[in-house]
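This part of the workshop introduces the protein records we will be handling. An example says more than a description, so a record of this kind follows.
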Amino acid sequence: MPSFTIQTQNIESTGPLVEIHLAIDATLESVLKAQGKTIPNPVPVLAMIDTGATATVIREDLAQILGIKPVGQALVTTPSSAYVPCYEYLIRVLFPNGITVETTAISASMQGQPIQCLIGRDVLKHGVFIYTGYTNTFSLCF
């Protein structure tokens, strides 16, 4: 079972952060290859594993950087707002150790956040997430 483990100085204050890459989904990549077009390079981002997030969230500008178009719209509720319309995008999440998960991510401003992505339960449902606070580590296995 592919996995990775990350240790931080203080997981309580920083949260479970992981450097990942975001890429276009496999279907779009196949279409672009068939058309002889350039495949956008995966974009490196800092992500937080968030068991409180129903869906994966990406910062709004990442969709433009990847050159992808929305596939839908979701109404998002946060602790400070309700029913905010946000675009949805098909993406591929590239974790350490060659772990890849495709999902539909929601875009949001994520203004003032040190992260560019939240990994939600839509991705976590495919694996096992272990948060070990007393050792300042977390593991994600698929």
User: Anything to note?
Assistant: The CA atoms of residues 25 and 91 lie 5 Å apart. The chain has one domain: 3-141. The domain at 3-141 is CATH 2.40.70.10 (Cathepsin D, subunit A; domain 1). The longest strand covers residues 81-94.
